Amino acid sequence: MKTRAFTRTITRAGVCAGLALLMTACIARGPDDYRAVTRSLVDTKKGDIEACFGGEKGTVVVNFTVEKKTGKIANTLVDEKKSDASAEVSSCVVSKIEGLAIDRGDMRDGAANFTWQVTQ
């Protein structure tokens, strides 16, 4: 009897642990949550990005992907039609965010578009 109860307890614990692992490994954020998490990540470089402008005025619009498995920012491209800052400023902004990663990946890639504008 005790062996059977012990076996059931171990089995239940294993099932619970497996379900917990599965639930944390398969995150599917909604658009608003994805946006907020990505914004928080990019904001960690706010000072560095503002320093890229070095007193220049202008706008840099960047499109990128948040990779589903790693959570890394990748495929970062400046939208030249919407940006009017110098190429040096734009390149600096890209270098500050490329490779950053959110804490956990997601079940799908995230497409993002961020704008930085300095008017003073």
Automatic annotation (TrEMBL):
According to the record, the signal peptide region is 1-28
The answer to whether the entry has keyword Signal is yes
Judging by the UniProt lineage, the source's domain of life is Bacteria
The protein's UniProt keywords, in alphabetical order, are: Signal
Q: What is this protein called?
A: Lipoprotein
Native species: Enhygromyxa salina
